[in-house]
Design goal:
This protein has 187 residues and is mainly α. Helices cover 68% and strands 0% of the residues. It has one domain. The longest helix is centred in the middle third of the chain and has 31 residues, at 71-101.
Length: 187
């Protein structure tokens, strides 16, 4: 989750239609985002160049599956969640962050409720991205996971920064890259 650690999902599939809420991408994100310094790096890029942390995680996850995304794939994934991100996730994050600035414990229960809604909204965004992935999954495989993760993250960061990033993308997200690699290397 943006701004806070992701919570563990419950065992149920909370979907009621085409979207699959309990999916491999969601589970990957919970594990990777919970690793040391991953959240901080993702949030730093969110603040610096406006990345969508769920899209960063999507780029890492598809790379972990040895899928190298094209710039068009990343832009398509971004477009698939843009309205949801702009009209639901970001406003919930803004409300939660604003309540936090009020420095009054009286509002903490409301902030916790908003945080819970924000996590659910991010889970829906990830389900949308998972559905998008199903349409591209067979088109690009064959590279090793480490290389695919790095290529995907680099492309997304370049798209968001409007050019080559001022610092190497490996410097921006080394913990995300390593956490994703640990998952694909795990027995």
């Amino acid at each position: 989750m943006l701004g806070e650690r992701l919570s563990q999902p419950d065992a149920r599939d909370c979907g009621s239609g085409k979207l699959q809420y309990d999916n491999d991408f969601w589970r990957f994100s919970l594990v990777v985002y919970g690793q040391d310094a991953v959240a901080e790096q993702c949030l730093g890029l969110q603040e610096a160049i406006g990345v969508d942390v769920n899209l960063l995680l999507f780029c890492a996850w598809t790379g972990a599956r040895s899928i190298v995304l094209s710039s068009a794939d990343i832009e398509g994934a971004s477009s698939s969640v843009a309205a949801w991100q702009d009209h639901v996730v970001r406003p919930l994050r803004n409300v939660r962050q604003h309540i936090k600035t009020l420095e009054d414990s009286e509002y903490e229960s409301v902030r916790a409720q908003v945080k819970s809604l924000e996590i659910e909204a991010e889970r829906i965004e990830q389900a949308i991205l998972f559905a998008y992935w199903k349409g591209i999954q067979s088109s690009r495989t064959g590279t090793d996971g480490r290389s695919a993760i790095s290529q995907n993250l680099k492309k997304y960061i370049e798209i968001k920064s409007g050019a080559k990033p001022p610092v190497s993308f490996e410097v921006s997200v080394p913990h995300l890259i390593e956490a994703a690699i640990r998952i694909i290397s795990a027995p």
